[in-house]
Amino acid sequence: MPGTPAGRFSIRPLAAATGAALAAATLAGCAPPERAQDGRSGTLRIAAATDTGETLNPYASNQTPTQELRSSLLYEGLTHLSPAGKLEWRLATDMTPNAALTEWTIKLRPGVKFTDGSDFTSADVVASIKYLRDPKHAVQGLALLEKIKPDAVEAVDPLTVRVGLSEPFGPFKDLWANVFLPMTKAGSVPGKPIGTGPFAVKTFTAGRQSKLARFDGYWGTKPKLKAVDIIEYQNQQAQANALLSDEVDIASSATPTIAKSLAGKKDIKLLDSKGDFTLRIGFNTTVAPFGDVRVRQALRILLDRRQVVSNAFGGYARVANDHEAGTPQCPAPDVPQRTQDIQQAKKLLAEAGQSDLSFSIATDGLLPGMQELAQVFSENAAKAGVKVDVNVVTPQEFLSKWGKWPAYIDFNTLPYLPYVITSLLPRRVANAAHWENPEFAKLAGRLFSAPEAQQCSIMNQMHRIEYEQGPMITPAFVDVLLPYRSKVRGLVTDVSGRPLSFLTNVTVGS
After folding, report:
1. Is the dihedral of CA 71, 76, 78, 81 positive or negative?
2. What is the pLDDT along the chain (510 residues), one digit of tens a residue?
3. Are residues 325 and 429 in the same domain?
4. Buried b / exposed e across 468-497, counting CB within 10 Å, b at 16+?
5. Would you say 57 and 73 are in contact if contact means Cβ atoms under 8 Å apart?
6. Domain for residue 320, yes or no?
7. Domain annotation covers residue 29
8. What is the CATH number of the domain that holds 116?
9. Is residue 119 assigned to a domain?
10. Which residues contact 340 (CB under 8 A, 6 or more apart)?
11. In the sheet where 160-165 sits, what is the strand order?
12. 225 and 324 co-located in one domain
């Protein structure tokens, strides 16, 4: 998710968003970056993937990398993750629970303004939470807030909010760093959403371009950029060509092959963010034969993970072991590193009556490495007599059939706890594998109410279940590569794979 795995960022939606664009304007062609009169840097031009169904609503059910990139500059949450993955305060300055962990009091940052100049207050937090919590809005963040009682969210004073829960929940503050839970001005969504971010919308045309202007009333460190233009292209090669021809300053999506080919040409540099971003193969456990754990384990040991790292990701990755990360404070679970074993895979498939197994993997190829991962898997599977076709479809088709594909390529950038809530528990919007494991769900319940000192032990028990019985092949942790022109300064790497979420100190030279 180069540049912004901020995309369906983290989790895939149940279906594509509907409705027309919130605003549209015919935009002129790309102009060279300008220098602001106040001495600050001018306009940063970012190439992004085309998304004709995009919207300015940060709560929309369809979240592509392009939409999440834009939203990260326009909106903010109560907390956020730093580039190092550390939880930090944002629009909130404190969250305090009662003794039972069933009620939390949120203190808000004073002096925060929305981009229309109005004050950010507790009334806006209450409105944002109630909008997110309302099932009729079908927002992606709903699963994260299901423990919040809608009738127990109240503004105590202009800078204090009290939130009641249906059951104890310890990691409450961690939830609010999620990209799907930003705060917006009361009554502004979905029609004309207003945020508190460092930039405001100037013009927007779905599927073409977004022009964002610096918000000089921003409460935090003021951006050095005057403006950000997000320009959309049909594919990754088109982004690369735009970078080479100086139509843009950054290509937000580049395969390892493209990134390597660009580095060093015409003063182009490469930002390499190493972290816990994963591309993986998912299996729908309600579709035969993927409900059989023997089949899933056989497919896991068909794969040569070193070949995935070298061929699918050009060496810009590290081997993973079929469980999620997102718990940097914890040691890895004590399970053997899975390696390719063709003979054992054949044996497991024979035991399951699937020696002549044949199926296809669906992918929209939206992110670098998706098609390449599917192709490496197909080549490895053939060694065991398993026929795997790679089915490349449009993002719109892929999302419209979300949860129905028998096998598919997915991605994750979420920290572990929100990932569990949205993707690994039954009947969750991102659980396209429809995986249900009672032991795993029981451990998740313990995790949600456990003190911090006990969380690592519980997480590693959950990782072991993912490793032994889970619905995913997670072969590698993938670097996020960002080719950019050398006149762009101040970019930072991000372990969550979203370096373009941090543009405050970025400048564009002449």
Report:
1. positive
2. 344 333 343 444 433 333 333 233 322 333 333 443 344 579 999 999 888 888 999 998 767 789 989 999 999 999 999 998 889 999 999 999 999 999 999 999 999 999 999 999 999 999 999 999 999 998 878 889 999 999 999 999 999 999 999 999 988 998 999 888 999 999 999 999 999 999 999 999 999 999 999 999 999 999 999 999 999 998 889 999 999 999 999 999 888 889 989 988 989 999 999 988 899 999 999 999 999 999 999 999 999 999 999 999 999 999 999 988 755 568 888 899 999 999 999 999 999 999 999 999 999 987 888 999 999 999 999 999 999 999 999 888 998 899 999 999 998 877 888 889 889 999 887 899 999 999 999 999 999 888 778 888 999 999 999 999 999 999 999 999 999 999 999 999 998 888 999 999 999 986
3. yes
4. eebbbbbbbbbbbbbbbbeebeebbbbbbb
5. no
6. yes
7. no
8. 3.90.76.10
9. yes
10. 301, 302, 303, 304, 305, 380
11. 92-97, 103-108, 160-165, 148-157
12. no
* Angle made by CA atoms 450, 96, 68, in degrees to the nearest 5: 80
Number of separate domains in the chain: 3
Domain carrying residue 157 = 79-175
Output the six-digit token pair for 199. 């930039």
Q: Which two tokens stand for residue 76?
A: 């903010």
Is residue 289 located within the same domain as residue 419?
A: yes
| Residue 15 resides in a domain | no
- Claim to verify: residue 248 and residue 101 sit in the same structural domain: no
pTM: 0.83
- Distance of alpha carbon 60 from alpha carbon 306, whole angstroms: 37
For 367, the token pair is 């992110």
C-alpha span between 468 and 465 (Å, rounded): 5
Question: DSSP secondary structure string, 301-367?
Answer: HH--HHHIIIIISTT-EEE--SS----TTSPPPS-PPP---HHHHHHHHHHTT-TT-EEEEEE---S
CA separation (Å) from 247 to 244, 251, 326, 490?
A: 8, 10, 36, 20
Instruction: Looking at the structure, tell me whether residues 351 and 452 fall in a common domain.
Output: yes
Residues 170 and 58 in one domain: no
CB within 8 Å of 169: residues ≥ 6 apart? 101, 102, 147, 448, 449
Task: Say if residues 455 and 307 touch (Cβ distance below 8 Å).
Answer: no
Beta carbons within 8 Å of 474's beta carbon, 6+ residues apart = 278, 280, 320, 321, 322, 323, 324
